[in-house]
Design a protein that fits this description.
Number of strands: 6
Number of domains: 1
CATH architecture: Roll
Number of helices: 3
Strand order of the largest sheet: 1-2-4-5-6-3
CATH class: Alpha Beta
Mean pLDDT: 92
Distance between the termini: 21 Å
Domain Thioesterase: 52-122
Helix content: 10-25%
Strand content: 35-45%
Low-confidence stretches: none
Structural class: alpha+beta
Shape: globular
Order of helices and strands: HHEEHEEEE
Largest sheet: 6 strands, antiparallel
Radius of gyration: 15 Å
Oligomer: single chain
Keywords: Hydrolase
Family: Belongs to the thioesterase PaaI family.
InterPro entries: ACOT13 (IPR039298), HotDog_dom_sf (IPR029069), PAAI_dom (IPR003736), Thioestr_dom (IPR006683)
CATH superfamily: Hotdog Thioesterase
Pfam families: 4HBT
CATH topology: Thiol Ester Dehydrase, Chain A
């Protein structure tokens, strides 16, 4: 059995930059390593729902990505097999910070959780949502030519 290696921060930045969705909504990897990651996204009016809060789809995407990237720092490429989230309060802020943590990294499953914080104008952070993901290591990523 070959040993699996996690992504270093430089690789994780490249993975994030290669994801069209992450680029389009403005996900930035602020910190990564040793089973943890911090992702930042600035507020944008075009990412809100009808009441003016950040859309739950974006909340889920931030939490899921934070879990996946945290896991990837330990085991490399992963895909989610189960995801759940809890929205605790309306997500309104000048920017958002998702902090992902790997709880347990096994050969077949990785368990991770994330918290999403909204920053106010003084940069005080308020917890707005939490999420948990069960991930499956997928091995080496595909190359652009599909191999």
């Amino acid at each position: 059995m070959s040993e699996t290696h996690g992504f270093d921060p430089q690789t994780l930045h490249a993975v994030n930059a290669s994801a069209a969705f992450n680029r389009s909504v403005g996900f930035e990897v602020a910190a990564a390593g040793k089973g943890e990651v911090t992702i930042r996204m600035s507020w944008r009016d075009d990412l809100t729902q009808y009441s003016g809060h950040l859309h739950a789809g974006l909340i889920a995407a931030l939490l899921d990505t934070a879990c996946g990237f945290a896991a990837a720092t330990l085991v490399g490429p992963v895909t989610a097999s189960h995801f759940s989230m809890n929205c605790l309060r309306p997500a309104i802020g000048t920017y958002f910070v998702a902090k992902g943590t790997t709880l347990r990294a096994g050969r077949r499953q990785v368990f991770a959780r994330a918290e999403l914080f909204a920053a106010d104008q003084r940069d005080d952070l308020a917890l707005v949502a939490t999420g948990e993901t069960v991930l499956v290591p997928t091995g080496e990523p595909r190359k652009a030519d599909g191999s």
